[in-house]
Amino acid sequence: MKPMRLHVNGVALWSGLLPGWDAARRILRGEAAAPAQPATRPAPELLPANERRRAPDTVSVALEVALAACRHAELPPASLPSVFSSMHGDLAITDYMCGTMASSPLLVSPTRFHNSVHNAAAGYWTIAAECTRPYTALSAGELSFGAGLLECCVQAVSGDEDVLLVAYDIDARGPLAAVAGSKHLLGAGLIVGPRRGTHALAQFDLQPETGDGLVASTAQAGNAALVAGNSTESCLPFMEALALGGSRELLCLATPQLGLRIRMRDA
């Protein structure tokens, strides 16, 4: 299979210690220190104030990076097909649902129930952005970022258009934390397209690679520690490569037997 050649036309990153791409880029490059006090959660501008307060953490972090990536690329949010990837969805609401169903099933909150589905963040995005373009919501365990990146790139090439990727996970709660662990909030947004955009950061060739024993690339130890434990932490080597710039090669896993060999260079 020929490599797919693509451009990163928009980028966003948010975690408590990497609060926004501008700050994250300086921190990942070693030009600034991470904040001493981590941010608790973002406040996505796309939602009205009352919705912003009620939105679950998954929606807050997903919409924050989705809108920031669109703004970086100067593309209308309503114009883009999208891919949302998350290992667990909203673990806090899942914990609530399980606990309430076990103790008082008639008291399940309708609002929390509709926020418990895996595509809730994608649904909020399409409504808030008034976007009628197709979206995909997927989960591939700890490799959900790689699976989402592959889906995003295939859609961009086959549809000959820019596609938005949003990868996110949040803190695990209650008994679920022992079996589906995830720490803190992390969201990464990318806009990938077949042509160079106005504010493109990089271009890259993506070559699928199959086999047993594939080993994914890792970020620098100090950078990796900033998001360690979150189920979407596998996004960091790609985001670090964007921050550092220059020519770089990395391997991102979409499944244990399917790697994405990425050769990246400045746009």
Structural class: alpha+beta
Q: Based on DSSP secondary structure assignment, what is the total number of beta strands?
A: 9
Q: What Rg, in angstroms, do the CA atoms define?
A: 18 Å
Unreliable segments (pLDDT under 50, ≥5 consecutive)?
Answer: none
Major β-sheet, in short?
9 strands, mixed
Strand content: 15-25%
State the share of residues found in helices, binned by percent: 25-40%
Quick one: CATH superfamily? Answer: Thiolase/Chalcone synthase
Distance between the termini: 24 Å
Instruction: Write down the domain tally.
Output: 1
The topology string of helices and strands comes to EEHHHEHHHEHEEEHHEE
CATH C-level: Alpha Beta
Oligomer: single chain
Q: Count of helices? A: 9
Question: In the CATH hierarchy, what is the architecture at level 2?
Answer: 3-Layer(aba) Sandwich
CATH topology: the name is Peroxisomal Thiolase, Chain A, domain 1
- Output mean pLDDT: 94
